[in-house]
Specification:
Blueprint lengths: L10 E4 L15 H6 L1 H7 L3 E4 L3 E2 L11 E5 L6 H13 L3 E6 L9 H8 L11 E3 L9 E2 L7 E3 L5 E4 L14 H17 L3 E4 L23 E2 L1 H6 L3 H11 L7 E4 L9 H4 L8 E4 L16 H19 L6 E3 L8 H5 L7 H12 L4 E5 L20 H12 L4 H11 L36 H5 L5 H12 L5 H6 L1 E5 L6 E8 L2 E8 L5 E4 L7 E5 L6 E2 L2 E4 L4 E5 L1
Helix pairs in contact: 11-15, 12-13
Length: 556
């Protein structure tokens, strides 16, 4: 593997709207991020990924971009961004922009021109098709529900939107449109950003015939991803993108990739991959159980072990994956993965350790380092997310009561990760002096940065130690380039693995169970404890006893 500048870095995602508000309008801004750079540096962060800050109508929280060259006024100005970029560089930190290029906003100048003449120059920047027998061109269901085709008023044309109707898909078969995208990407790289997180990129390849599939629901529609899975040739588009943009600047790119075909991993990551890395969402498959979204604790643990180990072994001879527990689209990890008895500080530290020390690039999400939780809402009106509102309505129509539908949202809504960052115990959690755009989690008086900074046993203090261990001079190479080796896979309630490089190694042992667990392993022989989330750790004769929800890291 060719060594790259980003291999040993730790990344942190910021959802700007909810991070820190400095002007009292209830919306986080760029100046708020700049103010907290020292906090992030002290935590151990090297790379900051910003969710979209471009000009947008915010139908899908900024993932509907109306001008790729402008900062939305809700976040500040381009001057504010330049200051943030400069201050980050002073601290040897890198900024990643969120790159949303499968679609844009229906308010974008290109689409507004296209609506006036679907058969004209800008009409070909998008996918306009005539309907069939008074119906849409095909029976695709969008990712947010309902038809993926929206009729253009006053004519026979429909346009494709795989997400919301306000997010028309861009036509990647149009060379002129592509050049405009490439010029924009290079403009940001010239400005000094270090790379991009690339949104929903697998969707850019379409079957231009847009054939219908067998319906998979009572609405007569089928999920649009079925077309994505069937179509061939996305790699050619991705290589062209890479060659004309990222490769010119040694940019770090992390892709959001779903529906990748079997045996394509080496085409997406590694020395010759389309991207530097891509998010590993394998852990989230533990919720996709035929017995329900959560299954039993034992089932969930065993599946979590299986998918994590399988993914690590699959990628370690290919390249680095980006390891993630939370992001702006995923509910909080404590509520998502841990059984009730483990939904505490020890459980949060245990999850963080397992994920952070895997082979790959660790990505933390804002608030993860203090153990932020899902937020209970009193009404569907408290939710902002377009997807949550559709899911709530679908639940009601399926026969659930309002209370049941609201409880489902509490477990699954994307807004769980978007509530304001909890900085202190003052009004609005120190996020804003005004009314926050989204409800603050009521637990902020106990769960906040200020309280945890002064508590040496807090989740935040533990994360600092954890990231410092990963970056320590003694173990940095082991945790960066060391091989991943599963340990004691058949031991119930235990998740354990070792990282090995040359004659040095470090091992992680985590007890997910409710009872004390004693384990014996070669990796413990002659090892010393490097980190633990609980006290009273003793390794004796290659054996150790773990308390419930205890994780230890040992090295030799």
């Amino acid at each position: 593997m060719n060594k790259k500048w980003w291999h040993d870095k730790i990344a942190y995602q910021i959802y700007p709207k909810s991070f820190r508000d400095t002007n009292g309008d209830g919306i986080g801004d760029l100046n708020g991020i700049t103010q907290k750079l020292d906090y992030l540096k002290d935590l151990g962060i090297d790379i900051i990924w910003l969710s979209p800050i471009y000009q947008s109508p915010f139908v899908d929280e900024g993932y509907d971009i109306s001008d790729y060259y402008q900062i939305d006024k809700a976040f500040g100005t381009m001057e504010d961004f330049d200051i943030l970029l400069a201050e980050a560089k002073k601290r040897d930190m890198h900024i990643l922009m969120d790159l949303v290029i499968n679609h844009c906003s229906d308010q974008h100048e290109w689409f507004q021109k296209a609506l006036k003449d679907p058969e004209g120059e800008y009409g070909d920047y998008f996918y306009f098709r005539k309907g069939k027998d008074g119906n849409p061109p095909s029976n695709y269901r969008s990712y947010f529900g309902g038809s993926a085709w929206e009729k253009v008023e006053g004519c026979d044309y429909y346009y494709l939107h795989m997400f919301a109707k306000e997010q028309p898909d861009l036509n990647w078969n149009n060379p002129k449109m592509l050049k405009e995208l490439y010029d924009m990407i290079n403009w940001w790289l010239e400005k000094g950003v270090s790379g991009f997180r690339i949104d929903a990129i697998i969707n850019i390849k379409k079957d231009p015939d847009f054939e219908s599939f067998e319906p998979d629901g009572p609405d007569g529609l089928t999920w649009v991803w079925r077309m994505v899975e069937k179509v061939e040739g996305v790699g050619e588009l991705l290589e062209d993108l890479k060659k004309n943009t990222f490769d010119r600047y040694e940019a770090f790119t992390v892709a959001e990739v779903f529906n990748m075909k079997e045996n394509e991993l080496d085409q997406f990551i590694g020395d010759n991959g389309h991207f530097s890395t891509m998010f590993d969402f394998c852990a989230h498959s533990v919720l996709a159980s035929k017995k329900g979204p959560y299954g039993s604790t034992a089932e969930k643990l065993e599946k979590l072990k299986h998918v994590l180990f399988q993914s690590q072994l699959k990628c370690q001879d290919v390249g680095f994956m980006a390891n993630v527990l939370e992001n702006h689209d995923i509910p909080r990890c404590i509520d998502r993965y841990l059984p009730a008895y483990a939904q505490n500080a020890s459980g949060a530290k245990m999850l963080g350790t397992i994920s952070t020390l895997l082979r790959g690039i660790p990505f933390l999400y804002q608030g993860q380092e203090i153990g932020m939780r899902n937020c209970p809402m009193d009404s569907i009106d408290d939710y902002d997310d377009i997807g949550t509102r559709w899911e709530y309505q679908t639940a009601i129509e399926s026969g659930l009561s309002q209370a049941q539908a609201l409880n489902a949202c509490y477990h699954t809504s994307r807004d769980n990760a978007r509530t304001p960052m909890q900085w202190d115990s003052s009004l609005s959690a120190g996020f804003s002096t005004g009314k926050p755009w989204l409800k603050v989690n009521p637990n902020y008086t106990k769960v906040n940065v200020e309280a945890q900074l002064s508590d040496g046993d807090s989740i935040l203090s533990y994360y600092k130690k954890l990231l410092a261990l990963r970056k320590s001079s003694e173990y940095r190479e082991v945790f960066t380039y060391g091989a991943f080796c599963p340990l004691l896979e058949d031991t119930e309630n235990l998740l354990a693995y070792e990282r090995k490089l040359d004659h040095k190694s470090a091992a992680v042992f985590a007890n997910f169970g409710e009872k004390e667990l004693t384990v014996k392993a070669e990796a413990l022989s002659g090892a010393t404890v490097l980190l633990s989330n609980q006290d009273n750790v003793l390794i004796k004769e290659g054996q150790i006893t773990l308390a419930p929800c205890q994780v230890i890291v040992c090295g030799r």
